[in-house]
Amino acid sequence: DNVFVTVVASVQYRGLADKAADAFYRLSNTREQIQAYVFDVIRASVPKLDLDSAFEQKNDIAKAVEDELEKAMSHYGYEIVQTLIVDIEPDVHVKRAMNEINAAARMRMAANEKAEAEKILQIKKAEGEAESKYLSGLGIARQRQAIVDGLRDSVLNFSENVPGTTAKDVMDMVLVTQYFDTMREIGAASKSSAVFIPHGPGAVRDVASQIRDGLLQGNTALD
Questions:
Q1: Does residue 203 carry a pLDDT above 70?
Q2: How many whole angstroms separate alpha carbon 72 and alpha carbon 34?
Q3: pTM for the full model?
């Protein structure tokens, strides 16, 4: 990634009892020698990796350092007990950029989750409205069917009890009765809106004819 990083390594070592003389006499500064080998291995290993891989492969870097030190320091009477890569610290600007990338990724994830939640709400709302309209339609259909059944029974009963009347006569009487009932309810309601409809004697027959024709057409469509 062409960025600078500070690698903190920890090396545990000890002198070998059977090579005590080598450990004491062959190196004047053991610490600096080990440090030089560590620097050499890290400089050779880390540049081959990108920044994310360097964090992920800390153990591999530590193993490479330990193998190199074990091979080199055994000649000087030292044993490498353990090597650890304690920390990898990138440049402060790089670290800030990484944090911003992670923050942006999390914000994008949060936005996706929010959008998904809103989508579910919209779907549930649409399903609820569809179910409500379906039930409302069933109610209206049953109401109209009950009205039709009631009118049919009224016509049949009146025709049977009053000889000489036709179904048309009965329907005219029923519709005119409903018309006057409607007018009475409109007049009795204190807060009803104004409704202007024909109400003369001749217009009543026209209203009855229009209502009857509408019902007959509706029944024809249902059949």
A1: no
A2: 9
A3: 0.41
